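We modelled the chain as a single entity of 181 amino acids. Its sequence is:
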Amino acid sequence: MQALASFIRTVDRFNDAVGRAVSWLTLAMVLITFGVVVLRYVFSLGWVWMQESYVWIHGIVFMLGAGYTLLHNGHVRVDIFYRPKSAEYKAWVDLLGALILLLPVIALTFFGSWEYVLKSWAGLEESREAGGLPGLFLLKSVIWGFCLCVGLQGLSLAARSLLTLKGTPLSVPNEEESGSP
């Protein structure tokens, strides 16, 4: 049980760190978007790479932040069936949801994107737009980062549910422990 608890804490710390790191990209996204608007409408200037950059950042934030969101129960649920129930009921729902729905979808996503990402890396794919960003292959690799973050967090969720069902619950790190306001 100690090994399981250690695994859960490690995964939780990893996804918390990744989520907090990519959250800073939202500031960059806002500033770049503001810059694009000002340059276009005030100075009649624009660059494709600059416009692509905030779209890419948006994708990175959502893909790599998904594990953080799962850790902190930020994904959509049907709370009218979940919230009022006992901890044991919630553990069963989380365990079965992770094992039957979440992890198979993550596996399909990973294996389904395998050739797509490798093909992009093989050609060092760039933007199709003239003046666009190089390194599209790096952006496509974020799919694997998504699978890693959400897959690990799904395993952590399943393990946490098992501990709850065994009578030794391990709580999700709350906002005070993780250092957010």
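As a brief sanity check on the tokenised model: The helical segments are 2-43, 48-64, 66-71, 79-82, 87-122, 136-165, 175-178. Confidence is low (pLDDT under 50) at residues 175-181.
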